[in-house]
Design a protein that fits this description.
Helices cover about 30% and strands about 25% of the residues. Bound molecules: flavin-adenine dinucleotide (FAD). Flavin-adenine dinucleotide binds next to helix 2, strand 12 and strand 16.
Length: about 425
Amino acid sequence: MRRHSVFAIAREAMRDHTGWPRAWARVEPRDRYDVVIVGAGGHGLATAYYLGKNHGITDVAVVEKGWLGGGNTGRNTTIIRSNYLQDPSAAIYEKARSLYETLSQDLNYNVMFSPRGVLMLAQTHHEVRGYQRTAHANGLQGVRTEWIGPGRVKELCPIMNIEGPRYPVLGGLWQSRGGTARHDAVAWGYARACSDMGMHILQSTEVTGIETGPGGVQAVNTTRGRIACGKLGLVAAGHSSVLADMAGFRLPLESVPLQALVSEPIKPCMDIVVMANTVHGYLSQSDKGEMVIGGGTDGYAGYTQRGSFHHVEETVRALVETFPILSRLKMLRQWGGIVDVTGDRSPILSKTPVDGVFINCGWGTGGFKAIPGSGFGFAELMATGASPLCAAFGLDRFREGRFIDESVAAGVAH
Ligand SMILES: Cc1cc2nc3c(=O)[nH]c(=O)nc-3n(C[C@H](O)[C@H](O)[C@H](O)COP(=O)(O)OP(=O)(O)OC[C@H]3O[C@@H](n4cnc5c(N)ncnc54)[C@H](O)[C@@H]3O)c2cc1C
């Protein structure tokens, strides 16, 4: 694979970019791989990448029913932060955030990580207490966050109305090294690096069945034929329970649509990410100038990958109170993704009742930020049978009552 460098880009500019090879190879499926990963979203691709990079396992196929990154990875609002309350969460999200810092260099692919800072607004006294507690917990966990007052909030985000009639801004939890990255580029960068290691990325290939026997997993049946495998990783977000059903076990998950929208592009007016959980909306400005706005989940389970008007209305109405300038913007488009939500709002990274089948899911409304850490840990779990990053996130916790309650950090937003 030709590396991206200043010289390579200059050379290609001179010849109309005709010399670049395909970013990832288009291949026919083989009969068998050591490892098959279902789902070419960020988590599946990152798992494959760290299997190769950290554990030398490269006989891997990533099987994707649609196109690469076409699930939630390509539909999210790209907020990256690690200010979670519980220790296991802070560990995996901070691992991910720190890997994002150098991901462009590691992958030799610009993922546009922009650590512009993430601010979670406190607009009720309950939130003040909650975020101050999180700031103390983060201090103990080695995650750099701070509690800031309304004056500093206004300095960081001048377009904000901190004296809203219903919910004045009382302060916020500030993570200066949080931010955003380009979601497609994260998927493409991992895919390119995997392909470079000889792994197969099989797009338009749906898994329709999973064959198991006394020794555990044997193969997946796909729309392009049967593929035998030694180990199988299910990394399919909103469709995780459908795949678990094929393998013969159940998951404590609900799949619900989550929506986002963008405005017409305007001149730069906001250079941080703001999450306003009380009024229920969050906001950042893209490089193109669009205001990127996230809303909430539908109140019912569903597999419809699209937005709905009542959410647009509710989200914009809530945000206009805190960001009055939004009232003059036109909204350009809206979309939805199917997110997989657990009862404690924490992910599942686990072995399963079927030998050789591993599951990575339950990232719900907030898994984009976790992609590098999740891939790092899940690859270790698949390769060696155990991973310190994943240990607390096993399926057993739902039977044993060891919940990792992140409903404050993750229940509403991202
Ligand atoms: C509107 C919205 C906003 C969000 N905002 C944020 C945010 O700001 N920050 C944040 O951290 N997170 C956010 N998230 C959550 C985040 O997008 C997800 O947690 C994350 O992208 C999940 O990645 P994944 O790789 O697990 O899943 P996906 O990217 O969904 O990948 C799973 C893949 O599995 C494939 N698949 C499913 N079934 C099969 C099958 N039978 N055979 C083959 N392939 C199959 C799907 O086609 C899909 O491509 C948001 C999500 C949405 C929808």
